[in-house]
Every structure is written in structure tokens, then in C-alpha cells.
């Protein structure tokens, strides 16, 4: 047993980026940080500051982070140690910014570090996947930057895509949650072929534009027909807020993951874009939202 305490910092992520459903993700400069230490007994003591305080604290051993940590302990052949876990959360819960992925990654990598072990990215993702189900949030939070990912025979395949020019993200976060299970429930099992072709072409254009810095086509390349039209029933004003972002000068605007955050991409600034989105949501739909201006995180998970 290595002992001591370890601290793991994991960035938020936005998934899908419009048409890249379950395949594209981008890491953002908003972080959840966990400090883990082994206990002499088998208990789990969880304390939370920031997002989720007074809500996550009560979960203890049932928390997602603790369950992920114990999966790593078992993988490494270790005893099920007790844990002290201190969380400092900046990422809002159930807002489509990858908070669950950060908890899973904190638990797995933190447990390994407590044992003095280092897991490969493949090992981390293999352990994380049963908790999350799909890799589009996990991989950018682990590696940083823009990542395309998918599953092949149960294994995560991922390619990090360097951005061809700088980007900023304008996250407009409404005061309502959308559970991922509910956001998936409203999706149809089958879609028209024209919609599938629409998304394939937009996703290809989106990745090519982001990789080369040719951002002029992003307003069209970021449009989607596979999930956002259906999820709009859960989030009044979604389409209108995205359109307000584009009219205010955003390069792209889309639902972040399963929502409820709507995210816009800009080359610089972003204050005016965020205010246009926030104001439309408030004035036309009575939805209060917070605006955060974020950069692209290129470091990914960091442990100390």
C-alpha cells in the first residue's frame, strides 16, 4: 500500500458538438478536483465543496467516484480499502458538461495512484466504460482537447484532433437539469436515411474544419438532425437560443451532451454571444441561465 493522499483534477467536456452524436468531445477549462486518502477501516467518508454540496455528501460508498475507485482496486488485485474523499466541484450536475465522467476518472486514477500504480489510458477507459456507457465525455476529459472516439468490440478507439486555430467556448447553463437517461429516452430507435446522411456529412465537415482552422463552414457543419430536434421537447428555447448565438457571431452553437447547457464556439471574445443567448432564454422562455466563458483544455486529467 503506497499510502498518503493523491489529488486528481479532471476537466469538463462537451460531447456531440452538434452532429457528432456519441463520437465527438471537447475538453473545457472547468474542473472537478478530488483528493483521496486511504482509511484504516472500510468506511468511505465523502465531503463536497461547490456543485453538489449537500447532495453528493450523503452518498458515501454508493457515490459514482467511490464505486469507480473500488473497480480499480479490484482490477489491481487490492483489498477494498476505506477512503476519505474530498471533492471540489466546479462542474454543474446534469447539465451536459461531463460531471459524471470526471467522477469516474477521479475514482479510477485516484485509486491506482494510492496504490502507487499507473494505469494506461486503455485500462482507464476499459474500467470507466461500464459506468458511463459511451466514451465521448470520458476521452476528452482524460486526454484533453478535441477527441473523436468510438467502440469496437468493447474497446474504446480514440484519436485526438489538434485544432487548426484557437477556439473559445461560451457555455450558457440554465437553472434546470436534464438526466441523461431521460434525454436518451426521447430519441427514436430509427431515423430517416436522409437525416443519417445529413449528420454524416456535417460531422465530416465539422472535424475537417476544426482540424484545419477553416471555420467559415462551422455554422452549417454543427447542425444536427439525430438528437437535438427530439431533445428540444425537454428544453424550451433550444433551437431559438442556438440561432441567437449564430446571429450574435458564434461559429457554432449546439446542445452540450444531453443538455441542458447550450454551448457556442467563438474565435475570440464571446461575451456578446453569451449575453444574447442568456437574454433570449430569459425574455422569451422565462429560463434563468448562467454564462461561463471557457477555453479548450489541452492537458486532460492531472494527478499529483
Describe, in short, the structure shown.
The chain has helices at 64-75, 99-114, 121-132, 138-143, 180-185, 193-212, 218-221, 228-231, 238-247, 271-285; strands at residues 5-15, 24-39, 44-50, 82-89, 146-152, 155-161, 168-174, 252-255, 262-266, 289-295, 302-303. It is of the alpha+beta class and 304 residues long. The protein starts with a strand and ends with a strand.
Question: Overview of this structure, please?
Answer:
- By secondary structure, the protein is an alpha+beta fold.
- The chain has 10 helices and 11 strands.
- It has helices at about 65-75, 100-115, 120-130, 140-145, 180-185, 195-210, 220, 230, 240-245, 270-285; strands at about 5-15, 25-40, 45-50, 80-90, 145-150, 155-160, 170-175, 250-255, 260-265, 290-295, 300-304.
- The protein starts with a strand and ends with a strand.
- The model has no long low-confidence stretch (mean pLDDT about 95).
Amino acid at each position: 500500500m503506497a499510502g498518503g493522499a493523491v489529488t486528481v483534477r479532471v476537466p469538463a467536456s462537451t460531447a456531440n458538438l452538434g452532429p457528432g452524436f456519441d463520437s465527438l468531445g471537447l475538453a473545457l477549462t472547468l474542473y472537478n478536483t478530488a483528493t483521496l486518502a486511504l482509511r484504516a477501516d472500510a468506511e468511505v467518508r465523502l465531503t463536497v465543496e461547490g456543485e453538489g454540496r449537500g447532495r453528493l455528501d450523503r452518498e458515501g460508498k454508493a457515490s459514482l467516484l467511490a464505486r469507480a475507485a473500488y473497480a480499480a482496486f479490484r482490477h489491481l488485485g487490492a483489498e477494498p480499502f476505506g477512503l476519505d474523499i474530498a471533492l471540489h466541484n466546479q462542474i454543474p450536475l446534469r447539465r451536459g458538461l461531463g460531471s459524471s465522467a470526471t467522477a469516474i476518472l477521479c475514482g479510477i486514477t485516484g485509486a491506482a495512484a494510492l496504490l502507487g500504480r499507473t494505469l494506461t489510458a486503455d485500462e482507464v477507459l476499459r474500467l470507466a466504460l461500464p459506468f458511463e456507457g459511451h466514451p465521448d465525455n470520458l476521452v476528452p476529459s482524460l486526454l484533453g482537447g478535441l477527441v473523436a472516439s468510438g467502440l469496437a468490440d468493447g474497446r474504446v478507439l480514440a484519436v485526438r484532433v489538434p485544432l487548426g486555430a484557437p477556439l473559445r467556448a461560451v457555455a450558457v447553463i440554465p437553472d434546470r437539469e436534464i438526466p441523461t437517461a431521460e434525454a436518451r429516452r426521447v430519441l427514436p430507435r430509427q431515423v430517416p436515411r436522409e437525416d443519417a446522411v445529413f449528420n454524416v456529412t456535417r460531422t465530416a465537415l465539422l472535424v475537417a474544419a476544426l482540424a484545419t482552422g477553416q471555420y467559415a463552414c462551422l455554422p452549417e457543419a454543427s447542425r444536427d438532425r439525430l438528437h437535438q430536434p427530439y431533445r428540444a421537447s425537454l428544453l424550451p428555447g433550444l433551437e431559438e437560443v442556438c440561432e441567437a448565438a449564430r446571429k450574435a457571431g458564434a461559429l457554432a452553437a449546439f446542445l452540450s451532451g444531453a443538455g441542458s447547457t447550450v454551448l457556442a464556439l467563438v474565435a475570440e471574445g464571446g461575451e456578446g454571444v453569451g449575453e444574447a443567448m442568456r437574454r433570449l432564454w430569459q425574455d422569451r422562455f422565462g429560463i434563468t441561465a448562467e454564462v461561463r466563458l471557457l477555453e479548450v483544455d489541452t492537458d486532460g486529467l492531472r494527478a499529483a
